[in-house]
Amino acid sequence: MPSAVAGLAHGPGAVVTRRAYKVLPMVEGYHKRFNLVLCFPPPEPEVVRGPVNLVLFFPGDVSDMDVDMVPGSELRAYSLEKLGDTLRGRLHAHDYLAIIRPASSPRGFFAHYTNFLGGMAHYMHAPMNVPPASDFACKHLAALLATFEAKEALEVESVTLVGFSKGCSVLRALMDHPLPEVWRRVRAVHFLDAGGNEPGVFPGGIPQPPVARPDLQVTLHATPRQIDDRARRWIREEWDAFPCARKLTYPGTTLADHFNILSLFEYS
After folding, report:
1. Integer Cα distance of 66 and 69 in angstroms
2. Is the pLDDT of residue 128 over 50?
């Protein structure tokens, strides 16, 4: 396209390149549940005709489609379109970026992944995975991927999972109760500044097969805004306890710093 737009590379007011994208408003998953998917294809059209690495991004609170955000609000610098602009610039040429919009957004602010996760907690809290030992999240993702690949006529060779803030609650559910049909193609997982208003931010216990395998790279990325929050000490405790060799930290305690991790995180 490209045109200069307000972006989030360094908070509100920064400039990023607006990249081509399209919206799939009704992608069907498990048991007739649907998610909107915002697609940022590889910049070179011929790449889409071959095998791609599909990067699935799960955003957190605040972000929504630009048209659904409050007009004139500075938070529109963090719209899903602008998060996609930033992430697309961080990815490789063969990566196909798909942003999974939460199924609901109470008060137009809080991300609730009710299609992946279970019962709703208080509207400020992350939804909790239900019932215990449920593989519901993986079943929904498997169905969602099948529909998405058919709609886009894609040959998905591998998958990278990226969660941001409360969006990491989906990664946690996928890892706690894995299914081989989902995890056989996952090559990397990135937790970006994970957080929530109750414990259960990171997966519990030691990862089990098919998650625990030598070729799967899991990386935790965080800022002091999350892991050093004294009101939510469990984030640091879970960060320290999670058995992951790659834990990377970035500076900053503000909301802008929180979102700026999307521009800074080490991607491979």
Report:
1. 5
2. no
Query: Cα(218)–Cα(167) distance, rounded to whole angstroms?
Result: 16
**What pTM was estimated for this model as a whole?**
0.88
Q: In the structure encoding, which two tokens stand for residue 161, read together?
A: 């999972």
Backbone angles phi, psi at 43, to 5 degrees: -65, -25
Q: At what angle do helices 255-264 and 80-90 cross, to 10 degrees?
A: 40
3-state secondary structure of 153: coil
- Tell me the three state secondary structure of residue 183: helix
The predicted-structure confidence for 162-178, as pLDDT tens digits, reads as follows 999 999 999 999 999 89
* CA terminus-to-terminus distance, the chain: 26
Whole-angstrom Cα distance, residue 85 to residue 102?
19
- Residue carrying structure tokens 């992944």: 113
d(CA 68, CA 190): 27
CA 69 – CA 42 distance, rounded (Å) = 27
Inter-residue contact 17 to 85 (CB < 8 Å): yes
- Rounded Cα distance between 95 and 210, Å, is 23
Q: Is the pLDDT of residue 13 over 50?
A: no
Q: Which tokens in the block code for residue 70?
A: 């409050």
